[in-house]
């Protein structure tokens, strides 16, 4: 390996950038998960990826339909089928929508939507923590203006929308309501890094109050990413929009199949007109090979599972675990070391995602992984500076004992960190020499 060719000038620059990330402890790498580890990391919220009943039904569906395994091309060429179109109609019906359009991923769906639907002169107002795919779509959009509002703040959303109505973007005063510009409001049902749920009813009420509902020209259009709510929130896992009865007041919804549904791909739910528009203008759909039959069959099988009796007890168990973990984390019996080092959720999450912020999440994640618990650290640039955390995801396949063991191990780590801090100074207050401090840090990470 010593005779490798020298790096090109470009590779030298790229290596320098990677070295900077490594120095800042923000370098991303691929890791493997051991099957023996308790899963507190993946988005497989219902544990369907290991559900034997789902696997059996999936194999039966593959044999029953007897279609080619591959897709054959893009959806607009040879990648379409009656099977795909029936699936779109069935999924749309399940979620109470008029129509749906399949995409190969949620990222493609979001990026494609926001790149082509907002027109020149339109505005996209987005929650500050909305997904990266929305940001990529907005960068490619014809829209002249994109404006963030404070995360989950209805008051700040109203401020932004009111300033648009009163400003030049939409025309002053009531003319803004009756003009031709459109305002898209992009939010998520459940935010993937924090696990908090959008105040969606209040958001929709505010948009309609300030901008109207879009039926008389101009107006506001709410777009909801339901990726982390699919299968988890709402009746039968239909999502937050259905849970609140907002199906007719939301312009478009994104549901993905790669999380709680154990598959891959996504669907945008909206009107028949917008479905046809996306077929003609959404480049990630037009120029991408469509989902193969095997993926479509798994999506159909997973939705059949959501409609079946076994879904309810799985979802109920998952939500019970959420309560259990919150009570264990916030128990008055927790030690001062635990509560001082970990920034815990102040209220019980409605979703299975817990954000536990701390100074060195990688050290805690490594400690837990060595105890056969898969927990991941999330650091900038994935999350804002100063909000690095371990992201704990619960699953229907977890047990109460798993959760107790997780919290117990976190407590052990916190106590060890407190002891190291106390030992950093001897009884007379003398700080340890540099070499001693480094040795303590190494020991803490073992």
Automatic annotation (TrEMBL):
Segments carrying the region annotation (Disordered) are 424-446
Instruction: Cite a single Pfam family from the UniProt record.
Output: Aminotran_1_2
Superkingdom as given in the UniProt entry: Eukaryota
Every copy of the Aminotransferase class I/classII large domain together lies at 38-409
Q: Does the keyword Transferase apply?
A: yes
One annotated GO molecular function: pyridoxal phosphate binding
Q: What Gene Ontology terms for biological process does this UniProt record contain? A: biotin biosynthetic process
What does the UniProt keyword field contain? Pyridoxal phosphate, Transferase
Q: Does the keyword Transferase apply?
A: yes
Write down the required cofactor(s). Answer: pyridoxal 5'-phosphate
Q: What is this protein called?
A: PLP-dependent transferase
* Native source organism of the sequence: Lentithecium fluviatile CBS 122367
From which lineage does this chain's organism come?
Eukaryota, Fungi, Dikarya, Ascomycota, Pezizomycotina
């Amino acid at each position: 390996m010593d005779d490798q060719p020298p790096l090109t000038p470009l590779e030298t620059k790229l290596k320098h950038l990677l070295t900077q990330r490594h120095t800042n402890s923000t370098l991303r790498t691929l890791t493997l998960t051991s099957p023996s580890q308790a899963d507190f990391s993946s988005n497989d919220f219902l544990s369907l990826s290991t559900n034997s009943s789902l696997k059996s039904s999936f194999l039966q569906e593959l044999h029953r339909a007897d279609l080619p395994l591959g897709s054959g091309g893009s959806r607009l060429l040879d990648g379409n089928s009656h099977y795909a179109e029936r699936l779109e109609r069935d999924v749309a019906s399940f979620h109470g929508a008029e129509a749906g359009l399949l995409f190969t991923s949620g990222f493609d769906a979001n990026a494609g939507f926001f790149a082509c639907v907002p027109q020149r002169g339109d505005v996209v107002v987005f929650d500050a923590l909305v997904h990266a795919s929305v940001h990529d779509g907005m960068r490619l959009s014809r829209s002249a203006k994109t404006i963030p509002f404070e995360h989950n703040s209805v008051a700040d959303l109203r401020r932004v929308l009111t300033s648009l109505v009163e400003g030049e973007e939409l025309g002053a005063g009531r003319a803004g309501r009756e003009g031709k510009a459109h305002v898209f409001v992009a939010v998520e049902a459940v935010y993937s890094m924090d696990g908090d749920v959008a105040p969606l009813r209040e958001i929709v009420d505010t948009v309609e109050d300030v901008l109207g509902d879009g039926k008389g020209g101009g107006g506001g259009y709410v777009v909801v990413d339901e990726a982390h709510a699919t299968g988890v929130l709402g009746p039968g896992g239909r999502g937050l929009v259905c849970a609140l009865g907002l199906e007719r007041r939301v312009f478009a919804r994104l549901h993905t199949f790669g999380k709680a549904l154990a598959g891959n791909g996504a669907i945008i739910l909206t009107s028949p007109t917008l479905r046809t528009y996306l077929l003609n203008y959404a480049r990630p759909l037009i120029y991408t090979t469509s989902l193969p039959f095997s993926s479509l069959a798994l999506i159909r099988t997973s939705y059949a599972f959501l409609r079946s009796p076994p879904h309810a007890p799985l979802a109920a168990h998952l939500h019970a675990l959420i309560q259990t973990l919150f009570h264990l984390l916030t128990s008055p019996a927790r030690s001062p070391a635990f509560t001082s080092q970990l920034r815990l959720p102040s209220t019980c999450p409605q979703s299975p995602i817990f954000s536990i912020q701390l100074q060195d999440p990688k050290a805690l994640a490594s400690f837990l992984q060595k105890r056969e618990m898969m927990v991941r650290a999330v650091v900038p640039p994935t999350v804002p500076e100063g909000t690095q955390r371990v992201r704990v995801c619960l699953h229907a396949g977890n047990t109460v004992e798993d959760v107790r063991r997780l919290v117990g191990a976190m407590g052990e780590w916190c106590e060890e960190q407190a002891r190291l801090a106390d030992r950093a100074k001897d009884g007379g207050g003398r700080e340890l020499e540099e070499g001693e401090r480094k040795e303590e840090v190494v020991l803490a990470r073992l």
